[in-house]
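Example: Transmembrane protease serine 9.
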Amino acid sequence: MTNTGAPAVLQKVQVPVISKEDCYRQYGKRGGIPDGQICAAYPQGGKDSCQGDSGGPLSVRQRLVGVVSWGHGCAVAGSPGVYIEVSSYRSWIRAHSNFPLKRRTYASYSQFCVATARIMNRLIVLVAVSAIAAGNALPFLDQSDHRIIGGRNASIEEVPYQVSFQYYNSHTCGGSIISKDWVLTAGHCVGGSERLYSVRAGTAFNQQGGTRHNVTRIIRHQGYNSTDAGIPTYDIALVQVTPPFTFNSTRKAVKLFGLGEQSLPNSTSTISGWGRTENGTARVLQVVNIPIVSKAACEKAYKKYGGIPDGQICAAYPNGGKDSCQGDSGGPLTIGGRLAGIVSWGYGCALAGNPGVYTEVAAYRFWIKSNSGGSRQLGIAMNAENARIVRLVLLVTEVALVIAHPFARFNPNSRIVGGDTTSIARVPYQVSIQIDGDHNCGGSIISKDWVITAAHCVDPDTNYTIRAGSNNHEDGGSIHPMAEYKVHERYILDFDGLPVNDIALIRVEVPFEFDDNVQAIEMYNQGEAAVVGSVGVVTGWGEMGEKVPAKGEENLLQIVEVPITSKHSCFTGVTRVPRGQICAGYPEGGKDACGGDSGGPLAIDGRLAGIVSWGLECAQPGYPGVYTEVAYYRRWIRNKSAAEGPWYSLINPFTPGGRIVGGKPTTIQEVPYQVSLQVNGFGFCGGIIISKEWVLTAAHCANYSPYQVTIRAGSATMSSGGSLHQVSQIVQHENHKTNPFGIPVNDVAVMRVKTPFELDETRRAIDLFRPGESSRHGIKAVITGWGSVMEGGVTTEVLNRVSVPLISMEECNDAYKSFGGIPPGQICAAYPEGGKDACQGDSGGPMTVNGRLAGVVSWGNGCARPRYPGVYSEVAYFREWINQKTGV
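Written out as structure tokens, the predicted fold is:
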């Protein structure tokens, strides 16, 4: 270009890309070209980009390859134009812009076909940086712009769940109706304000007919991202519309695959959409049938790009020719009329050896449920004949809702596999939680008013009834309407759809009348471990696997025994198990709990150790069942139910917890180092100020996230006064565990507060025992806390204090010899006759000798019982650990 000034009209020029070697040679005198740059030029010059073009695009087949950077002169022979190589900075671009890839995306310089090209058609100013920042990026090396390839025209009645997801009233992606007000699409199809989007439903034409619905809410998966190769991960989103769809022959919700249900290789899938055909953009809905490809084959096809992420499936003909492409993004892939996949990405369109890749609905089944409100109206309508059979990963009939494939991998609903029919008198705590008289989940009676179950069994705005005292979920016993329910406030489904904090309580309107068939079950104590190898008893009304029930036994309670497995072996078998869960199963499989059993009991020696939660497969080798660990949530249960259940009898094994028995009220000035650890205003443990910003407590008190815990200091009243301090860091002893007898080992932790304590007469750090320091036996120790003032009582509001003498390790070991004795790093205090002790609620609190910290309240068998001393973590033993973690 000549120096005639900047033109007012946008200019365009075509120049050939040259090799890096050739470009480096031509700029050799200037040191070559840096890494991350490419060149384009005619050998004779004459065409180039110049000043004013800096930052502009260099595109190849409408995909951004380079950004105009520099050159020697303009269009000078032998001096190519130099451009920033986009593929070298793809990760940086993503990291600093987080722009949504609004396409059936496809990767960086590696020529992945990027799919929803409508937005690109609106780009007028081709300034790379601003385009990318706006989310309307040029597709990076978009190889083609094709679409339902090899398909045919279709009527909307064939696929009434298909919708057109529109941006500024123009088709940009497909979507699938899953309920009267929710549409499922791809994560890369959304970005920006809801008001910019709309949904057209009930028509085979994406620009006319049917009904238009405004978008009121968009929920993209929180894990949505893309790999270094540009492959989208967690590529799923939900779109809520108004007004709701009116269902008829042209608008229907599609049933969804069950969580973990496999799409079998070679099964025929149906894909539909309005992308581009061989002849251009399709205005009429297209449909094509394509076989599912095994994950192994798909992984191999995309090996050089890092394979395919978890939660994706593939479909293709070996020789290509049929596929989905841009414009089809977010649209449905169905198998047998049920939604198995969402159009996501692929290399090119319909190319041999390059399958189309789809978000796997089965992997996100519970994410969909939890984020769409878990509506029972979801187009996963429960088939009455099979309502008890589906076993999605979370073993819940309500969630499952779909008939699982017999080879379903993550399929919660099947049932007690390998078990036998049992009487209710054998397990009188078992109940059936029902909706409109139909069995939904199991549960366990823990008091006259309360039932415990799994959180995934409980949905808002659903009226449940409880049938108790019968082994037939359709007849007998007594019916109790629900008065209220309480789901764990931190219950969520994680990125993989696995339930975390899967526990809930239901209070009944009419209390249970206890008799031989109706009884509360005693629960495991806080921190008590289910011993590996011990036999657990699981009961429920799920399906029986391959077992054919005898006539008349279809609705009868089943029972099975399964051994507890180690958390390590369970972790290996199922990849990852969230905290607060335990596992049980035979290595060879054959016996298990499955869907319909969700929420039911896992009992060990007649005590409740677990709640049926989820599993991979049903009774399959190498896949134990996973259960919510009751011991982990013991305090939560107590706090939320306030019931007088049998768990308050603090019998063996031990309850880390406890409280001041036989003591008297005290002031905070007497013990200014004492603090209360609280969650939601409820004091659950004690603690000790050891510096302006650090508190020492018991490790079994440190199972919360820092943001959940506050510390009240400077007050003798647990719920008022003093100052509140948010916890910023929790450090639990790295070797903390419970031994086979349920006794806590290495039971110390430290917590850091965001706002330092202002030390005064009500808040003061305590001096700690030195490493190796000990006190003589018989000397009085002072223990303080807000626990219950009697065994089985509730916590008090006023700080209490008691003095008890230290006893020798020999005496303490002798007292607990039937339980393996006392672990290292623990000391004991007690009166031989009992009567004074620390009990639940005092856990983590101080035991002082002559005003210096000697111990941290840890555990004991009951409270103030004769011959059973209270046991304390020995500060001198852990002194160096404390110093290492806090500097104190």
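DSSP finds eleven helices and 56 strands in the chain.
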